[in-house]
UniProtKB/TrEMBL annotation, chains A, B, C, D:
GO CC entries: 6-phosphofructokinase complex
GO biological process: canonical glycolysis; fructose 1,6-bisphosphate metabolic process; fructose 6-phosphate metabolic process
Domain Phosphofructokinase: 16-290
Chain's gene name: pfkA
Taxonomic lineage: Bacteria, Pseudomonadati, Pseudomonadota, Gammaproteobacteria, Oceanospirillales
Keywords of this entry: Allosteric enzyme, ATP-binding, Cytoplasm, Glycolysis, Kinase, Magnesium, Metal-binding, Nucleotide-binding, Transferase
Binding site for substrate: T139, I140, D141, R176, M183, G184, R185, E237, K259, H265, I266, Q267, R268
GO molecular function, one term: monosaccharide binding
Similarity comment: Belongs to the phosphofructokinase type A (PFKA) family. ATP-dependent PFK group I subfamily. Prokaryotic clade 'B1' sub-subfamily.
Protein name: ATP-dependent 6-phosphofructokinase
Assembly information from the UniProt record: Homotetramer.
Regulation: Allosterically activated by ADP and other diphosphonucleosides, and allosterically inhibited by phosphoenolpyruvate.
Function, as annotated: Catalyzes the phosphorylation of D-fructose 6-phosphate to fructose 1,6-bisphosphate by ATP, the first committing step of glycolysis.
Tagged with keyword Acyltransferase: no
Amino acid sequence: MLSIPDLKPEKHYNAVGILTSGGDSSGMNPAIRSIVRAALNSGVKQVFGVRRGYQGLVSDDITLMSSRSVTNIVQKGGTVLKSARCPEFSDPSVRDVAARNLSSRGIEALVVIGGDGSLTGAHILCQEHGIPVIGLPGTIDNDIPGTDDTIGFDTAVNTAVEAIDRIRDTARSHERLFLVEVMGRNSGFIATQVGIACGAEMVVVPEYAFDFHDLCITLAERHSKGQGSSGIIVVAEGRDPDLTHRLAAQLKAQGQDPKISILGHIQRGGSPSGHDRMLASCLGTAAVEYLLAGYSDIMVGVHKGAIVDVPLQRVIEEKKVLDRKLFDIAALLHK
Amino acid sequence: MLSIPDLKPEKHYNAVGILTSGGDSSGMNPAIRSIVRAALNSGVKQVFGVRRGYQGLVSDDITLMSSRSVTNIVQKGGTVLKSARCPEFSDPSVRDVAARNLSSRGIEALVVIGGDGSLTGAHILCQEHGIPVIGLPGTIDNDIPGTDDTIGFDTAVNTAVEAIDRIRDTARSHERLFLVEVMGRNSGFIATQVGIACGAEMVVVPEYAFDFHDLCITLAERHSKGQGSSGIIVVAEGRDPDLTHRLAAQLKAQGQDPKISILGHIQRGGSPSGHDRMLASCLGTAAVEYLLAGYSDIMVGVHKGAIVDVPLQRVIEEKKVLDRKLFDIAALLHK
Amino acid sequence: MLSIPDLKPEKHYNAVGILTSGGDSSGMNPAIRSIVRAALNSGVKQVFGVRRGYQGLVSDDITLMSSRSVTNIVQKGGTVLKSARCPEFSDPSVRDVAARNLSSRGIEALVVIGGDGSLTGAHILCQEHGIPVIGLPGTIDNDIPGTDDTIGFDTAVNTAVEAIDRIRDTARSHERLFLVEVMGRNSGFIATQVGIACGAEMVVVPEYAFDFHDLCITLAERHSKGQGSSGIIVVAEGRDPDLTHRLAAQLKAQGQDPKISILGHIQRGGSPSGHDRMLASCLGTAAVEYLLAGYSDIMVGVHKGAIVDVPLQRVIEEKKVLDRKLFDIAALLHK
Amino acid sequence: MLSIPDLKPEKHYNAVGILTSGGDSSGMNPAIRSIVRAALNSGVKQVFGVRRGYQGLVSDDITLMSSRSVTNIVQKGGTVLKSARCPEFSDPSVRDVAARNLSSRGIEALVVIGGDGSLTGAHILCQEHGIPVIGLPGTIDNDIPGTDDTIGFDTAVNTAVEAIDRIRDTARSHERLFLVEVMGRNSGFIATQVGIACGAEMVVVPEYAFDFHDLCITLAERHSKGQGSSGIIVVAEGRDPDLTHRLAAQLKAQGQDPKISILGHIQRGGSPSGHDRMLASCLGTAAVEYLLAGYSDIMVGVHKGAIVDVPLQRVIEEKKVLDRKLFDIAALLHK
């Protein structure tokens, strides 16, 4: 249960925009819904939805939203505002166009839901053009500094866990070893949580060195304890696209016969979990409250069970660390 | 992501017992698994499973467990140790039998997973017989003081959310109002989280007064805004078993034609969510660490994103409060 | 895999209407989608959606549909055309209004998706006003004569099966007996399929006499075989709304302590199963083909693995029989 | 609802063996359960489970089963008897060992659940050693001649459909084209059913020529109709392991930017659907009835909604054909 700060409204905005950007994550829709409704219920006159992320800001693909236009989206995966990559947003002249589009419609502030690239864009827009921005962490990877949780992470973990539960049926029936690659970009948050949740025999993440020799010992130990030759190794996609296949080759050289499963894009979508809907609803409401309390250039996230604000500058500069203790639990519990 | 304390082992136990008691909750099995494995990996020589809660303690229904005996249970609902009510445990002479059974097998400490009744039993056993006990919060209701989260809550919320998503299909197709009763004993934690997650039109909980007139206005407003006459009202079961039906009767008297759905026992079981498996695995590991660090008569729970210890005395005496701010968000977002 | 008849188009229709009526069932949306697209792809110029069943026909709540207007509905529960009861449709003068509304928009034929009441309405409209109609069996109850399967049955069974799997976790953990009431109106098709699929200890259906004494023997036998005192009894709702509670009372009088779970409305909605989407897509396509081949006053259903046409007259007059052999398998397999 | 033949018991067997072989499929467990219970309830004295398919027959890895040993497996994916490939079974001297192992335990007949390779093994064993065998079609691929359905097909379709529903969220949010590869060995049954159920823009199967030019036109048409540039192309794995990647390359050359998702092993496991549990329960029961009626060297399958027997010889020699009409519906409905 999230603790929510008490903030006093100090500012008034006539019109606010919302934008989802970067890879979609499940929970963006309940976030959009709560921003729209919280804003309209707090006296904001108009809420605009920017379509296709920063691309829509540049191409002026912007529509008016109402309380009704976000009816029945709380349970939907993806983002009704659509998302897109917009590499040209790194060009200042392109950002000028975006700022003009906002101003021509009277949009005075912007809430951006996305990952670190999206939040960087928000920060620069704020710095350059003085547009008040609030960021929300929307990514399945949970790799945003300053927040313990991100919108979409819990759903992605549940999806991966259910998929691996299925794979385990086959692994146990055939007494086979499976290498299952999960998403997570350069971080091992998904892999660690999924590995613990699935009782994986090993978890491989970019953050911590992985000892192949150790894996072989673990597998041999399990075998001698009668825990069978079936097993699941969860591998974070990481920076090295060939890691999973190379690992499989190494295991084959050791006499194992591992199968590979790349979970891929099934982890992104799907109806958001209860947790992600709750998180998104609370963060969306809080985003509006922070905005009306005069905050800007911040991300609204979760830390130690409470909703907090974090300067976007810090979000951009820091790197989120995967707790070693947590990672070690995965190793401890398969024994 | 949970933060886990660093504890130094100070004590040695030859044999430890585990017991699940009270209503089963999803995640008890990964908790059992992590306690067994963490204990055996930390030098505890024997781990015993007590079957059927305190009843098994009294009837000496106790079996030796091994790392292998908890293989492939991480994904299973319910509790492999089974559970039962044991009203006779309130009799001191019955507790004497329990203590003798533990001592006759050389069981030196006990980890109890359950709700407040179960934790009360553990506290008394510790006080009376000097048996070191560690409690873990295992209940779908999330109503245990001293911990922000309980094993089984997240899964129960997800199950209720999925069920209500289905009901909403019918509610929208027929433009009907549904009263959906969720579990939660005397508290509204499940109802509030589910209500927010499902975009319910109203949430009724035991903690906060409910204004029937207000509900009528809300329904009328929605109607006039064109949000349709379909809707979901989430009702916590609470102390009054007739509340949901009485509410339906009141709404009928106002010209509405509400349908009732009592979600009931489907909320308890089912494969635990990724979150609950993670929580249970971390709490189980921590329970062993606290025990070996010399702690006793405590519950190991979660507070502000960290694993913490709480005196069982406090757990028994206090009442957990449902955050008003959170509850208000449910009301805010349906508008 | 369904076998689909080869039909030659013999007729041309400029405009066709679609209507969903009665209790919603999961798969109505893919049926709507396939009717719209099959019609437009077969030369029908306009497809109209009638909203709220026969009520919309009477109140002229009719909208033009396009291929695009049924995009992304294949996975949605309920019916985008909405449904309603319309008791006044039994009045001939009301049906005259309906017929005039169709004719004033140039709608020359109607496809009706629904249960027996809905198909009766279609038949009378056809008989009285000469409007060509094709019916599709859309009900979770699978109680429509002339077809082995109905749109929504498979999804409802899966939902009930998943719910009972959850309940079984609790039943086994607490060694309790559960009475689970499933839908099915006056028939036991859902109960029988669910009972077999869940390994229920007993299935109670309206079609076959139920021997309470036999149940007591079964429970005693299971107990003596060491199969435990937990168990699931699946009860079809049937005509007697008190049956489940009365059964529970009888069991209590025998010293059992059964719990009751009424699955209720969660069985209706939810994303349609693969089977129901396939069935709905094929039936919808076939409905258009039968219409264009000159058929009318028929239901398009499934018999012996093939898509068939059945006179609506027969659908209305007959009663579908629950195969005794199938019912007996449920009893056989719990032993 | 399956129609089940009436067969009179003509033979008596003291002991019967069960074996699952080849790739596991969801529903093998309810099949095992129903064979064990139907046999014991029909007067067979002993039922033996052969572990690890034909490998266990050769290595004498055979255990006695009881009604209780199949309790609570009806809902489990995979096979509790485990499965394995056994290439050495093609050696007659190895089959001699298998036959001796059966005879030394007094096992007089064998029920084999698996795909075509497994059923071929059963046929040869019967021919060579006169051992009565009954085969059941257990494979997710639904590619067994003589039966319209196989144990595991429906569950695999549902799993793939749910996965693609998730992918569609991302496809629509990002307006991207996805190539999703599903299982099915050399046949397109899974791909076709999944393609129709998901409203795929195109289905590529080994049975029917695929016109790349046609796909480009379809995508262009959809674009011009405003149905967006997002889309799902379902590709059966087929004989050509590079097909999906080659298709992606061709689409890239045309200016598209498709993403690839290989669903892989998640399609095999998971709790069986209601349909597969029902099918497996009925086929398992029928297998025992056919055996006791004196049948041998047959597969018990489903044809035109009825349970039927098919000579194993025919199963081995024929090739199951994917209905062209059904395949065409997939193409028809995306328009």
